[in-house]
Amino acid sequence: MKRPPIFPLYLFLTILLAIPISAFGKEKAKEEEETIQAPGPLVESIFKKNGGENRGNGDKEALHRQYRIFRDHLKGSALPQAEMAEAEERLAAGDLDGLKSFLENRNEASVARMKQAQKEAAQDAFALGLFYEMLQKEEIASSHYGRAVKLFPENSQYLYHLGNALHQNGEYEKAIDAYQNAIFIDSSAYGNGHQYIAALKNNLGLALNELGEHEKALILFGEVMEIDRRRFGEDHYKVGTDLLNIGRALFKMAEYESAIPLLERALTLHQNRYEGPHSLISDDLTLLGRARVKTGDLQGALPLFDQALRIDRAIYGNNHPRIADGLTHLAMVHNELEGFDRSIPLLDQALVIFENTWGEAHPRVAACLNNLGLAWQGLGEHEKAIQCFDRALHIDRQLYGDNHPDVATDLNNIGLAWYDLTNYDEAISCLDRAVKSGKSSYGEKHPKVAAYLTHLGLALHDSGAYEKAIPYFEEALAIDSASAAPTPEMASDLIHLGNTWRALGEFKKAVTHYEKALAIHQGLYGDLHPDLVADLSSIGMIWHFLEDHEKAIASFEAALKIAEQTFGKKSPETAMLKTRIASALEDAGAYEKAVSGYEAAEEILLTQKDERDIYVKLIRENIENVRMKLSAPPEEEGSSIAEVVSGVRQGLASWYGGIFIGRMTANGEIFTARDLTAAHKTLPFDTRVRVTNLENGKSVIVRINDRGPYVGKRVIDLSRRAAKEIDMIHSGVVRIKMEILAEPHDELAQKDG
Question: Could you give the residue ranges of the DSSP H alpha helices within 665-752?
Answer without folding.
Answer: 720-725, 747-751
